[in-house]
Design a protein that fits this description.
The structure holds 2 protein chains of 2 kinds.
Chain A lengths: L2 E5 L3 E2 L5 E8 L7 E7 L6 E7 L4 E3 L7 E6 L4 E6 L8 E8 L11 E4 L3 E5 L2
Chain B lengths: L3 E4 L2 E4 L5 E7 L7 E6 L6 E5 L3 E2 L7 E6 L2 E6 L9 E6 L6 E2 L3 E5 L1
Parallel strand pairs in B: 2-11
Antiparallel strand pairs in B: 1-3, 3-8, 4-5, 4-9, 5-6, 7-8, 9-10, 9-11
Chain lengths: 123, 107
């Protein structure tokens, strides 16, 4: 059974860096795209970034200057760093797997999600 | 970015009703359109991918159609567990964008 679990601080100060990790169990991250998505309280979903095991990455241009996605195959994890956070970055952050195995981003869909982790930006 | 617009934004319906939710893309996205269901405090659940393919484990009362810019999600006979928020998503190009959501409520 494939499972994803987000972890990281629930509270981050303004202007600091938000760091989250997604631990994957039940499947190796050496296939599929792996994604980060966020959802501000009471609002809709925003895709942030994804990474393929080869290291190929894609970023949302609205966040690209502040975001880094990376993976650690030895730990079967992938991570998100978001720099210079503000209150607007307060959200539930989800990690999710792309269902395609072939490394093609177009036409993908997120078939398995973590439960999400709430991150609040506040001093 | 490709804008995804869902209609209606909210919908009241009864158990047993047939319900249709529409999603329109700001430009053609071929059939690269997915549908998700989200319940409060939970992660989204994939229902339909590439416009009309039913995700494994999803009841057959859910169906999707469309191509180009106009897409629909249909629930043939609403069940109590179907009351939730539904999102469409395009994966034709980066950034992958979602619709604003449709809140399906009990009448």
């Amino acid at each position: 059974q494939v499972q994803l679990q987000e972890s990281g601080p629930g509270l981050v100060k303004p202007s600091e860096t938000l760091s989250l990790t997604c631990t994957v169990s039940g499947v190796s991250i050496s296939s599929h795209y792996w994604n980060w998505i966020r959802q501000p309280p009471g609002k809709g979903l925003e895709w942030i970034a994804n990474i393929y095991y080869s290291g190929n990455t894609n970023y949302n241009p609205s966040l690209k200057s502040r975001v880094t996605i990376s993976r650690d195959a030895s730990k079967n994890q992938f991570s998100l760093k978001l720099n210079f956070v503000t209150a607007a970055d307060t959200a539930v952050y989800f990690c999710a797997r792309g269902r395609r195995r072939d490394g093609i981003n177009v036409g993908d869909a997120f078939d398995i999600w973590g439960q999400g982790t709430m991150v609040t930006v506040s001093s | 970015d490709i804008q995804m617009t869902q209609s209606p934004s909210s919908l009241s319906a009864s158990v047993g009703d047939r319900v249709t939710i529409t999603c329109r893309a700001s430009q053609s996205i071929s059939n690269y359109l997915n549908w998700y269901q989200q319940k409060p405090g939970k992660a989204p659940r994939l229902l339909i991918y590439v416009a009309s393919s039913l995700q494994s484990g999803v009841p057959s009362r859910f169906s999707g159609s469309g191509s180009g810019t106009d897409f629909t999600l249909t629930i043939s006979s609403l069940q109590p567990e179907d009351f939730a928020t539904y999102y469409c998503q395009q994966t034709y190009t980066t950034p992958q964008t979602f619709g604003q959501g449709t809140n399906l409520e009990i009448k």
